[in-house]
Amino acid sequence: MLKNWLKIAFINYKKNWLSTIINILGLSVGLCVFLLIYIHWQDEKSYEDWIPNKENIYFVENGNASFGIMASSSYPEIFVSKEKFSEIEDATILNDWGKQKLSFGGNSAYVSGTASVDSFFRMLPFEKVAGNFQNAISDNGKIALSLETARSLFGDDYRNAIGKTLKNDSNEKNYVVTAVYKLPESNSVFKPDFIYRNPYLEQSKDQWSSYSYNGFFRVKPGTDIKALEHKLSKQMQEQEEISAKKWGYTIDKKNPAMVYLTPISKMKLDAKSDGINKGDKKSIMILLGLSVLILALSGINLINLKTAQASQRAKEVGVRKVAGSSKATLVLQFLLETFMICLAGYIIAFAMIELLLPVYNKFLGKTIALDNAGIFLYTGLLLILFSLISGLIPALYLSNFRPINTLKGNFARSKSGVFLRNFILTLQLVISSFFIICSLIIHSQVSYMMNKDLGFRGDQAIQIYFKKANWENSFNVNKYRRLKAEMARIPGVKDITGSVNSIGNGTANASIVKLSTDTTKTVQTMLGGIDENFLKFYKVKFISGRDLDWKKASDTINGTVVNETFAGKLGYNPKTALGKEFFTGWDGKKKYKILGVVKDINYSGVNQPVEPIVYFNYDRNWVKNNMSNLQIKMSGNDINGTLERIKEFWTTKAEPGYPYDFEFVDQQFAKTFDKFQKQQTLFTTLNIVVLVIALLGLFALSSLLIEQKLKDVAIKKTLGADERTIVWDLTKRFLLICFIAVLISIPFGYYAMNEWLKDFSYRIDMPVWPYVLSMFLLLILTFAVVSLKAYRATKISLVKYLKYE
């Protein structure tokens, strides 16, 4: 029996070779897209699976009215909480300390490190290679190295590195090696090349409002996390009230301080803040949902084409039933045929994944490998489920044929068959229209971001970071001045400036500002320590007032320029803000005066709101030691030559032995919406895939349906109907279905895109034209595909179809 089923299946595949190829191609592309996004999702979910008892370790996040939800915590919040609340078994903090240069003898390594405390190794138990984790970083003179770093510094003798002294050239300090550890091979955000004790712990012990550390708790099994969050939040609210009384500002009671605990195993995707190298869960889930739609579209094609072929197999079913075949037997036979098509698509899909995975990895910046046995198990189950769902409808439909009707040959007129095909075709076109609408709106939003006035001109300007000198005087201002003076003599260098905040990398060093005339009115602002020529360097436009005059002592001591957002937060417009005085959290006894208001500069990216910022002379307080970069504008005559001269100076005189790295300021800012450009690319690609699958399915379906009407066409031609009339008669039903499908898709597209646009602080108004264009585009494509087959139908031989009439 099985052999007979297979023989019948292959005869039908051959007879309907076009629809068979389209089915297999559509299924393989749909499965390929779904599986690529699925394995990306599984890869993101697998972060921190290597940590023992990870279900009891939680990442600490804080939220308040001034900062929103932050990935950082204060030192006392973490360690006082450990002593105060019995549910917390252990706690640790850590900071990414960036790249630093370590050296031993004639060997050196430029590697990334983490600053932490001894409890780090209890919370994140790396595999020990040598030494001892206990007291490994108990003081500022100890360091633990990864296996790779130890090999770079000590060669094959890395196991004997314990007790040896290396030098950190970046801060000019010596460290004794206490441990060598192996980094986890699986996915993790914790992969430091070295670990040492955070040098700022002593001065942070009483600073409850200094959110400077990533904090983690290990809690007792069975702990009520919601109850613990409530206790921690209440503690931080009490500390916020103490701080408000001390500094004389009011608290927003409607937005009290809150503490959130996120499981470390879910931190990568589910952190409430920006987390630590947080993944983009929302985009992944959107893409996963869209890939399911594409897979559904492939299944719809299969269902539609199978039901459209029903008239060809109606007599076969009638004969089989008369011969004694049961309904269940027929259903199993048709399910087997569907399964074989799905299996072929499944195999081709994995071949396509192997070919596309390197390109996909490069696009994502990841190294995903197709080596997880679970993927094959889950996708195998998906194959069976998909075959069952997509095959069951046509199988039941075909097995329900009545022998008396099918053997008379009048099945083609069945209303149920027409209704089912129309319904499924409508669903197919709804999905296609939805993708077109979403793709057009995403393209509009990304184009809007790329062309938005950013408030500055960063063309022909590069930024170079220099290394800190030591813990006590980080980013020494004297080093900035020396480098600026020396680099100004390089031919091709037009201008040089510097600032605390870096365009494209966001702002830092926030503080509370309150008006001198109304101490209850406060604004959370960013500190914009800048060099004398910063605003001129970037051609920032003044709305009112003037720039700081470095020759006037009053300007450099307490004069400020503020952005329009800052003025608005204080309740002023750009003109009325001039001359107003305020106190600051960084220098509470001194009054600062607003001398000018400038247009907003977007530091963090156009999807983020512009923050209030106060620009002032960098050389008047502790901010001067945070000058960490040089921003260099070059003349347009010989940019490549100037870059080479800057590189030679930097690698031979400024910081010899360190890698030379720079970035154009406008390109640095462009990275802030790189994520959204990738979304645009993915959506466009998926849109093309959807249209190809839908149009191929539509072509195959229209071919089958028009072939069933060739006798009608022959009769109309005999009665004198012209080609245009016949083509219109054959296509108008498809166009009506297309029109209805677009109307149905509009509310779904509107809802989805309105939700997506909520991520942007600066967004387009919801446009009307994508919905209109989607309708016209889909109508044109539908007409083009169907009319092609319809026109060919008008060229049939009348004798062939009318000789028995």
TrEMBL record:
Q: Can you cite an annotated GO cellular component?
A: plasma membrane
Q: Which residues form the MacB-like periplasmic core domain?
A: 20-233, 426-634
Q: How does it sit in the membrane?
A: Multi-pass membrane protein
Report if keyword Transmembrane is assigned: yes
Cytoplasm as a keyword?
no
Q: Could you tell me which Pfam families the record lists for this protein?
A: FtsX, MacB_PCD
The entry's keywords = Cell membrane, Membrane, Transmembrane, Transmembrane helix
User: Which one of the record's GO molecular function terms can you name?
Assistant: transmembrane transporter activity
Q: Which InterPro entries match?
A: ABC3_permease_C, MacB_PCD, Macrolide_Exporter_MacB
Domain (ABC3 transporter permease C-terminal): residue spans on this chain: 290-401, 687-797
Q: Transmembrane segments in this chain: where?
A: 21-41, 284-305, 330-353, 373-398, 419-442, 682-706, 734-753, 768-791
> Could you tell me where this protein is found in the cell?
Cell membrane
Q: What is this protein called?
A: Putative ABC transport system permease protein
Q: Which species is this UniProt entry from? A: Epilithonimonas mollis
